[in-house]
Amino acid sequence: MVRRVALKGYRVAPVFTQEDFAELMEARLAIEPVNARLACERINQHGLAELGKAVENLKSAPRDRRLPSSRTTSRRTSGSTS
């Protein structure tokens, strides 16, 4: 995560504590159900078709948690000369 510091630019944010994470999840639980309801009320046929495609893509997505993270992969490939 990145935080903006006034008159200094952007800095890498400190790692979340358990308390920070709990607060974030509490905020998400307050906001996301309302957003889901509104999305359901407002979706059209095109949006529904796009959502169906996204669900199908997720079904075929890799599930192996041992895959390298994007951060690890980008570090490894950024210095590559091939």
- Share of helix, binned: 55-70%
Q: How many separate helices? A: 3
Unreliable parts: 72-82
Query: Mind telling me the C-alpha Rg?
Result: 19 Å
Provide the succession of SSEs: EEHHH
β content, as a range? 5-15%
Question: Number of DSSP strands?
Answer: 2
From the helix content, strand content and strand pairing, which structural class follows? mainly alpha
What is the terminal separation in angstroms? 30 Å
- Give the overall shape, derived from the CA principal axes: extended
> Mean pLDDT, nearest integer?
83
Strand order of the largest sheet: 1-2
Q: Biggest sheet, in brief?
A: 2 strands, antiparallel
Structural summary, described in words:
With 82 residues, the protein is mainly α. It has a domain at 17-57. It has three helices and two strands, in the order ββααα. The chain has helices at residues 18-42, 45-59, 70-78; strands at 2-5, 9-12. The protein has a two-stranded antiparallel sheet. A hairpin with a 3-residue loop joins strand 1 and strand 2. It starts with a strand and ends with a helix. The model is unreliable at 72-82 (pLDDT under 50).
